[in-house]
Design brief:
Layout: H1 7-18, H2 22-26, H3 30-44, H4 49-62
Helix pairs in contact: 1-4, 3-4
Length: about 70
Amino acid sequence: MPGQGSAGNVLAAFASLVVPGLGQLLQGRLIIAIFMFGLAVVLWFFLLGWIIHLWSVLDAARFRSKE
């Protein structure tokens, strides 16, 4: 996937806005996707899930592949 600011990252950020971790999954980062989704689910019980939700969107938008 191309670098930061690319259409792929914008799509991934939008996907993470809908479901936390989905953007990371689209970028091929399975472990962090599972971690963000699970943490968001747990923290929404304490009304703090928005923090992980926002982190997920920003992480997907700013991701740069090592290739």
